[in-house]
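Justification of resources, computational component.

The compute hours requested in this renewal are based largely on the per-chain cost of generating structure records like the one below. Each record pairs the submitted sequence with a full structure-token output. That output is archived, and it is also reused by downstream analysis tasks.
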Amino acid sequence: MDNGSNPVKIVGNADINPPLDPEVIESLKELIDDDDPDFLTDLLEGFLENAQDNIQKIAEAVDAGEADMVGRLAHTIKGSSRNVGANVLADISFELEIIGKRGSTKDAGHLITDLATEFGRVKTEIEKIV
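The structure output for this chain reads:
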């Protein structure tokens, strides 16, 4: 945000913002069929692997001042996070995407910390499912 505030500061409050949207997870579970019983497990494990890799790359891009790369990687995480119901992770990624589009990584440091923290919450919940 332009005023420097971070509207996602309630990252740690699982009662208000659970790491995974239960409705999205239930919708994904409905897609499981006999032809692909591992669908959800494969999807969630793939998400974790890709997101973790992209979060590391974002941190490196921030350190290198590569705003365009930050924006592109954050956009990728945002989309995949929404697909699995990790809405807070998607919101933080969206803020990083905006920062990247502005062409500077100056304000990204605190969001990297928030992104990593929220990813930890999401990973813990996914590991309960798979």
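The chain is about 70% helix and 0% strand. The first helix runs from residue 22 to 29.
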